[in-house]
Amino acid sequence: MNRIRIALTTGDVDGIGFEVAAKALNKVGPQKGVQVILWRSEMVPQRLLSLIDKKWARITVDSLEEALKVKGPYIVDIASDLPPAKWVELSAKACLDKKIHALATAPLSKTSIKEAGFKDLGHTDILKRLSKTPSVNMGFVGDKFNVVLATAHEPLSNVPRKLTQKALQEALINANELRKKLPAAQKSKPIGILGLNPHAGEKGLIGHDEARLFPKILAFARKNRIPAEGPLVPDAAFFPINWKRYSLYLALYHDQGLIPFKMIHGQDSGVHISLGIPFVRTSVDHGTAKDIFGKNKANPQSMIDALRWAIKLARL
């Protein structure tokens, strides 16, 4: 591949997306053979625009169509009047058309998506709709451990019925694809699948979901040569002694995986990778933080990770 194009969307106009994107670009620096298409509002104030170091060659255009014609600069800066959700949609379509090789996204609120006229709840739903992918899972890679979610933004009352054998198998397949992309020391370890109930059901004394799910999913894993163990007791699985035991954890619902992931990694590490879609998409693992918009206080580390992983995966 002669040149890699990475689309970087900066999310809500009044959030920290542009700030963390600028700081991440400065930290990563220009990469040989990599062009970044940076989506941002035409209303971004000059004091924020000036955060991008002069070491980056940059040209400003006003549409993706124009950006795709540019051959030279490291950053093609799209000053757009479109809603931020539309940036994601257009970039994803370009990824599907193989005009862009990876998509990295800053935080985008559900309110912003709704105001754009979309029915989607988040980035993942937009990408799932456009790619017509039946099963997309959220993966999170951190310095200490990694997590994949079998279900995402579901009310707790819906989780047991959403955990069909098919859904769990598809989540395990997607988790295994992420495992293969991890560093050698990690990918040699099994996937740890969490139980759903306290004490992983305690052999049926505290729920029967584990007995319903695990004999079949572990048989599926063996048949497909996916290294997996479970059910892990959820309240003990994330002890530090276990971090190096597993390549990643497959959590059965959103908060089961993301509370420990965010508690441990905070703002110092962590990248969200969409699993199952036919192109590379990475993202920060935090929200819009509108309370510190424009104050130059945002921690860019998650966006640094997202940009680095987007480049790494696009090169595979």
Report on this structure:
A 12-stranded mixed sheet has the order 3-4-2-1-5-12-11-6-7-10-8-9, sandwiched between helices. Strand 1, helix 1 (17-28) and strand 2 (34-41) form a beta-alpha-beta unit. The model has no long low-confidence stretch (mean pLDDT 95). The chain has 2 domains: 4-133, 3-Layer(aba) Sandwich (Isopropylmalate Dehydrogenase); 137-263, Isopropylmalate Dehydrogenase. It contains 12 helices and 12 strands. The chain has 316 residues and is an alpha/beta fold.
Mean pLDDT: 95
Q: Structural class from helices and strands?
A: alpha/beta
* N/C terminus separation: 10 Å
**How would the global form be characterised?**
elongated
Rg of Cα set:
20 Å
Strand fraction: 15-25%
Spans of at least 5 consecutive residues whose pLDDT stays below 50 are: none
CATH structural fold name of the largest domain = Isopropylmalate Dehydrogenase
CATH hierarchy, class of the largest domain: Alpha Beta
Largest sheet: 12 strands, mixed
Can you name the CATH architecture of the largest domain?
3-Layer(aba) Sandwich
Number of strands: 12
Helix content: 25-40%
Q: What spatial order of strands do you see in the largest sheet?
A: 3-4-2-1-5-12-11-6-7-10-8-9
CATH level-four homologous superfamily name of the largest domain? Isopropylmalate Dehydrogenase
